[in-house]
Amino acid sequence: MTEEKKEKNKKQAQKEENKEHNPADEGQPMIALTFDEYSDLEKEIESLQVQVDEQLDSYLRTCADFDNYKKRVQRDTARTYQDALASTVKSFLVIADDLERALKDKPAEKGAAAWVEGIELIYQKILTQLKNQGVERMDVNPGDEFDPNIHEAITLEEHPGYTEGQIIDIIQPGYRISDRIIRPAMVRVAQ
Description:
The chain has 3 helices and 6 strands. The N and C termini lie far apart (112 Å). It is elongated and about 115 Å long. The protein folds into 2 domains: 54-133; 137-191, Roll (Nucleotide Exchange Factor Grpe, Chain A, domain 2). The chain is 56% helix and 15% strand. It is of the alpha+beta class. Strands 1-4-5 form a 3-stranded antiparallel sheet.
């Protein structure tokens, strides 16, 4: 008998699940509509759906505009930082150039060895500080092709060992901050 009751309960549960949802079963009154009223309600739903779609589109555009604004502000801030850094760094590049020239003409005297070593340490310290700020010395060598984007030609001269457009000598090294040139390398170019 218990199996029969279980089977009966199962069938009754399935019937209840299969019943369609009927608002009248929940105590809500049913409203009769005419065809015109139904048609008007459908038109109103469509109109509201169009408004919702327009509002969603407007919202998405506003979000995209705001994202673009944030990116532009970040880019401008980074550019302003790089401009300020480049401006400050340029004054130290002159000092680094002077120290490099002084080290090329080291005194030969024995007593000057400690002095030369001190100047070399100062020069290395300046280069280290520049590197820590993101400033890199450009790698320019004699024989490289002249590129007006990163080199500044101070002379064009005939030279038997170089072809036209090759760099003969580097007068002053160039520097950059990431991909931005803050000072082009001054070079002599073969004609």
